[in-house]
Amino acid sequence: xxxxxxxxxxxxxxxxxxxxxxxxxxxxxxxxxxxxxxxxxxxxxxxxxxxxxxxxxxxxxxxxxxxxxxxxxxxxxxxxxxxxxxxxxxxxxxxxxxxxxxxxxxxxxxxxxxxxxxxxxxxxxxxxxxxxxxxxxxxxxxxxxxxxxxxxxxxxxxxxxxxxxxxxxxxxxxxxxxxxxxxxxxxxxxxxxxxxxxxxxxxxxxxxxxxxxxxxxxxxxxxxxxxxxxxxxxxxxxxxxxxxxxxxxxxxxxxxxxxxxxxxxxxxxxxxx
Length: 273
Prior knowledge:
Helix content is 28%, strand content 33%. The protein is elongated and about 65 Å long. The termini are far apart. α1 (23-35) links the parallel β2 (9-12) and β3. An eight-stranded mixed β-sheet has the order 6-7-8-9-10-11-13-12, sandwiched between helices. It is an alpha+beta fold. α3 packs across α5 (139-154). It has helices at residues 23-35, 50-58, 114-122, 124-129, 139-154, 199-212, 229-237; strands spanning 2-6, 9-12, 40-46, 62-71, 74-82, 99-101, 104-108, 159-165, 173-178, 185-190, 219-225, 241-251, 257-266.
């Protein structure tokens, strides 16, 4: 399980596919290695092995980024643990709970959503106003979007939900709470066949309720490009307050720069709608 790789160094060796590392056994092995003089242990977790990543998180390993082609030619998440490091999580691993209300259901995204994600983020309006989305997305970009949502939960950065109508699990869009560890911000996109029905407002209101309730936030910001009437309408319908303009802070899909209109909402200002 642990292999010494040099003076004062060891690493966790990956187990065969389908054989997750036993956290208790690994914890005991770490104790023994540090007692024998090992100063730091590395663990190169294959990207996508969420069981191993959560184990590394639970045991206090520090995440160091992605090593390209590191494990049998595949990318790996890099983790390290020092002999004197606390054996506990360093950050919060965010939850993405199912939330229902007002005819809308927020739920975690799944691989089954990938085709609808591609349709939603590849729609011309989305491509124009959210120019940071991948251009002309295909199946690979859809799966990458889903993977990023999982990574950002693990990084204590963002909760991203898919939303659907109650009783119908078909993905109609996504709503997220971003940068939860620094400057919380609301974001969203809507599948083209779900627009004009008030669904995004209702989904965003549920997300804000989670932000102010479960997460205990006191304030959430949001931004929309000047000229994006639909997105500005969502923020107004949520009762968010316009607080200013960040001039020339966005780029639209045609390469032009645009102003960003800023909004925010305090916990006590959220209404039931």
